[in-house]
Amino acid sequence: MSATTPRAPGVPEVSRATGTPRTPHGWPLWEVFVRSRRGLSHQHVGSLHAPDGAMALRNARDVYTRRGEGVSLWVVPSSQVLATTPDEQDPFFDPAMDKAYRHPTFYEVPEGVEHL
Amino acid sequence: MSTPAAAAGPAPGGTSTTEPLVAYLLGLGDDALVLAQRLGEWITRAPQIEEDVALANIALDLLGQARVLLTRAGELEGAGRDEDALAFGRDERDFRNVCLVEIPNGDFAVTTARQLVFSAYQCELWSALRDSADPVLSGLAGKAVKEAAYHRDHATHWVLRLGDGTDEGHRRMQAGLDRVWPYVDELFAADDVAAHLAGVAVDPPSLRAPWSAYVEDVVARATLTVPSPTWHARGGRRGLHTEHLGHLLPEMQHLHRAHPGARW
């Protein structure tokens, strides 16, 4: 897998304004994470296309938080996400199935505790 | 007519300022309404679906502003016209928007240039109107200034990327600026209406300096040139429009006029 995304045809190698090298252009895919409120962790909500990270954040704001869903956004280049494959299902996940003692089901959950 | 205006407070200063205030509210409301309609034309036509959603969001923000402004104008006018009657029942010569918002979308760069110009103007406008003596205007301004800040941010990022991007993007973005710049002056033209509304309205020329500082910085960073137009649009606030508004209105008003009072 290439770590970088191909540059769109014709995009200069460096910024005309600053002379700095460009991050890859084109419209790569970004994974979007939303934190719905303080105290909770960011949750993956979907993905979108954007030319770069700054635009990806703005697109994410419009696509995923316009109904007040969030207080914080992360975007991550999809190409940077390493994932298991279906072939690896068994070695990765099967050994966990028969170890019931790993589940915290042998405790009473105190009343009024949220987010468990 | 019942007086819903009373609930929102009477016109500041009494009846002597009512007429100018109605005209002022119509001007700002029509700006937002007509641009919302224009931006809505991008839906299903934007370069990417994400941009489709972004432009629709911006259009809906503007439509929300227009509803508040036209409703308030109708209440103060006292002739029984609500927001729908004002939006869908008036003809071209009764619209008070600046010509900038009615010009066709052009390509994405023209729309982006217009968004930069208008949203940067609205940022300064709403920021100043937070101190308006009119409770509806100041209340709306507190909310709308945040919306305008996002619209300006969105346009800014696109101007930077297109201007400082491919040769094609650079050329089109400059052409977009050249297309809309003749319409800039009208935003900041002194007008009699605002002059009668000290403490309520904002004097348009006072917004120009901060607007220029922001916009010129963006244009420079995008490696583009601030155009020097040879002519300047005029007359929108007096109901004298470009030919384009006459084509926009039938589409916007058709449903309401064919089926008065139609509801979802």
From TrEMBL, chain A:
**Per the UniProt entry, what species is this protein from, by scientific name?**
Cellulomonas carbonis T26
Protein name from the UniProt record? Phenylacetate-CoA oxygenase
Residue ranges of region Disordered? 1-24
NCBIfam families tied to this protein = PA_CoA_Oxy2
**Encoding gene (name):** paaB
Pfam families registered for this protein in UniProt: PaaB
TrEMBL record, chain B:
Superkingdom of the source? Bacteria
The signal peptide stretch is none
Q: Name one GO biological process term.
A: phenylacetate catabolic process
Pfam families membership: PaaA_PaaC
Q: Which InterPro entries match?
A: Aromatic_CoA_ox/epox, Ferritin-like, Ferritin-like_SF, PaaA_PaaC, PaaC
GO cellular component entries? cytosol
Family annotation (Gene3D superfamilies): 1.20.1260.10
Q: What is this protein called?
A: Phenylacetic acid degradation protein
